[in-house]
Amino acid sequence: MTDAPASAPSDVPADDDVHEQKAVRLGKRDRLIAERVDAAGGAYPVAVPVTDTIPALRARFAELEAGDETGVTASVAGRVVFSRNTGKLCFASLQSGDGSRIQAMVSLAEVGEESLQAWKELVDLGDHVSVTGQVISSRRGELSIMVSDWAIASKALLPLPNLHTELSEEGRVRSRFLDLIVRDQARDSVIARAKANASLRRTFDEHGFLEVETPMLQIQHGGAAARPFVTRSNAFDADLYLRIAPELFLKRAVVGGIDRVFEINRNFRNEGADSTHSPEFAMLEAYQAYSDYNGIADLTQELIQNAAVAVAGSTTVTWADGTEFDLGGQWERLSMYGSLSEASGRTITPETPLDVLRALAAEVGVEVPEKVATHGKYVEELWEHFVKGSLERPTFVMDFPLDTSPLVREHRTIPGVVEKWDLYVRGFELATGYSELVDPVIQRERFVEQAKLAARGDDEAMRVDEEFLRALEHGMPPTGGMGMGIDRLLMALTGLGIRETILFPLVK
């Protein structure tokens, strides 16, 4: 029994059909094992002949015309995604990991009656097979292998989903392995991510940065305002935290003399999940000694624009829905307080009293929990209400309130403000950058204020980190630092939601 191309309207065949097909395929597995008594692996051999990849053959023989024969013998392997059996000739489409396909033609004249019959009886959709034969172009102009020998490389016990019907979003996320088989965009997203990461590393290398690794298990969480995951170490008999950010360790590296340092890492934040947030996510952080938030903004723009060129061939990217988005040119730099004042029609400065901000928030329906109700928190929440939604082009939003930025240096000319920017692309925050706070005395004061917020019930507030303060006391040079979500970078480059940019996102 050989599967015909799937045609059910659902993501996968019905349960009864799956059980029936699995039983039939298990029988074929048993037969393969019985007939291969001298072959290691049975239905899953250790190795099969492969001399060429499918994409390499397609590139080499791209100009072949219908009916041409090359005289070249090749062995290729791939997954069977289409199969049609006739009396003396069987056709199958073999797919490689990148989605490239080649046709296998198994004929009575080339392989003999016994081998042809075995193909008909044993090969199913989803199986991996190796075929050897001459590379030709069929009468319809399809690049093909005229098979002289073949072998099953791996027997699929479960059928593929319908190749002509989109998997649901939930189905794609939960069974990404199937998504990668059947959907070009899923494979393209993985390739885009790899190209973007490679581009980031190239750009850093060109600027003399070193890539390092910092701990994921930490005695004390820090480096961001976030609620951590807590775990337990039996060896140390202590609670440990999964990293929420690598910042405090990367700054230790700068203190130690690694003047230009970066890390692409996994972070974990025990918070909500939505279209732009995931509890586990990839992040890039970088620090450049003797720079500031302006210099690190220039570098961030270059990193993203280079990544766009690596993925799309241009700084103008095309999203999954066909929309073109321009990441080129010089990006605007917008004052947080200035843009909030303009959008709200009120003059709002670092000196604006908390009561005034609270009244404005109540007027427009912005809620701020009392345990975190500081001047800065109100300003940031009001800015998101009035301004955030209007940002279409990539924009650096500059100069944040002091009390919400405990790791950032105060602005050199504007009291009550710190030298921090957030980069907004497509209406969401993509990256953040600082002129880093390097004075250990002021940093301790900021940590103490954070500890007071924690005592009031703010789960995201930082704690006093004595080891980090001890490092700062040994002298940290003026430094610009930035952090950027890799998943969000892919969102900006592809137009996809965050769960589509992560290969295997966390699902309940």
Q: How would you describe this protein?
A:
The protein folds into 2 domains: 15-154, Nucleic acid-binding proteins (OB fold (Dihydrolipoamide Acetyltransferase, E2P)); 182-331 and 393-501, 2-Layer Sandwich (BirA Bifunctional Protein, domain 2), CATH 3.30.930.10. The chain is built from 16 helices and 18 strands. It has helices at 15-35, 54-60, 108-111, 113-122, 169-174, 176-182, 184-206, 247-255, 293-312, 336-344, 354-364, 375-386, 440-455, 466-472, 486-494, 498-501, and strands at residues 69-85, 89-95, 101-107, 128-137, 143-154, 210-211, 217-218, 230-233, 238-242, 260-268, 280-289, 316-318, 324-326, 332-335, 395-401, 417-425, 428-435, 479-485. The strands form 4 sheets. Strands 6-10-11-18-17-16-15-14 form an 8-stranded mixed β-sheet, with helices on both faces. Strands 1-2-3-5-4 form a 5-stranded mixed beta barrel. A hairpin with a 4-residue loop joins β8 and β9. α6 packs across α7 and α7 (184-206) crosses α9. The longest helix has 23 residues, at 184-206. The two termini are 37 Å apart.
Topology diagram in text:
Layout: H1 15-35, H2 54-60, E1 69-85, E2 89-95, E3 101-107, H3 108-111, H4 113-122, E4 128-137, E5 143-154, H5 169-174, H6 176-182, H7 184-206, E6 210-211, E7 217-218, E8 230-233, E9 238-242, H8 247-255, E10 260-268, E11 280-289, H9 293-312, E12 316-318, E13 324-326, E14 332-335, H10 336-344, H11 354-364, H12 375-386, E15 395-401, E16 417-425, E17 428-435, H13 440-455, H14 466-472, E18 479-485, H15 486-494, H16 498-501
Parallel strand pairs: 3-5, 6-10, 14-15
Antiparallel strand pairs: 1-2, 1-4, 2-3, 4-5, 7-9, 8-9, 10-11, 11-18, 12-13, 15-16, 16-17, 17-18
Subunit structure: Homodimer.
Family: Belongs to the class-II aminoacyl-tRNA synthetase family.
Subcellular location: Cytoplasm
